Amino acid sequence: MKPVNRFQKDFRWEGVPRKAYKPEGDHFRDITRQTLFGPESGLDAELRYFEIEPGGYSTLEKHAHAHAVLIIRGRGRVLVGDEIFEIAPFDMVRVPPMTWHQFRPADDTPLGFLCLVNAERDRPVRPTKEDLREINGRREVADYIRA
Ligand code: MN
């Protein structure tokens, strides 16, 4: 990787491929990933840019690793634990370990955010039927989540 990856129009970075969010699954929709910085650059972390199109959503998941998320494009909402928050540039979102989370854009704009994670991390887990019953306990959350 060159020292500088120039920012291009439409939230692309020079030399950085835009990839699938996850290798496979039907638990997410209309979301792409660009890995801007990886462990090969000398830090035990990855910095990714994710972008979700209107109507799309990230996986409803939890895991032992944490996320530091900085919103940089569009608007939307995020579920963290059992609360839903409105998000816009340049809001900072903290996802603590073992906390359910899901990102969704507003209806009329994509949602783009930087996400910092440990390079070595555990695999996300998705909710069981029992978990879903608990997560869906609040009407607002039940209307929000896509799983
Ligand atoms: Mn996650």
Poorly predicted runs are: none
Overall, the morphology is globular
Helix content class: under 10%
Termini distance? Answer: 36 Å
Q: What's the helix-strand series?
A: EEEEEEEEEEEHH
User: Order of strands in the sheet with the most strands?
Assistant: 3-4-5-11-6-9
Question: What's the SSE blueprint?
Answer:
Layout: E1 7-8, E2 12-13, E3 19-20, E4 29-37, E5 45-57, E6 67-74, E7 76-80, E8 83-87, E9 92-95, E10 101-105, E11 111-118, H1 129-135, H2 139-144
Antiparallel strand pairs: 1-2, 3-4, 4-5, 5-11, 6-9, 6-11, 7-8, 7-10
Bound molecules: manganese (II) ion.
Manganese (II) ion (MN) binds at residues 61, 63, 67, 101, 124.
Provide structural commentary.
With 147 residues, the chain is mostly beta strands. Helices cover 9% and strands 43% of the residues. The chain contains 2 helices and 11 strands. It has helices at residues 129-135, 139-144; strands at 7-8, 12-13, 19-20, 29-37, 45-57, 67-74, 76-80, 83-87, 92-95, 101-105, 111-118. It has a 6-stranded antiparallel sheet with strand order 3-4-5-11-6-9, with no helix packed on it. Strand 1 (7-8) and strand 2 form a beta hairpin. The protein is globular, with a radius of gyration of 15 Å. The termini are far apart. The mean pLDDT is 95. The structure holds manganese (II) ion. Residues 61, 63, 67, 101, 124 line the site of manganese (II) ion.
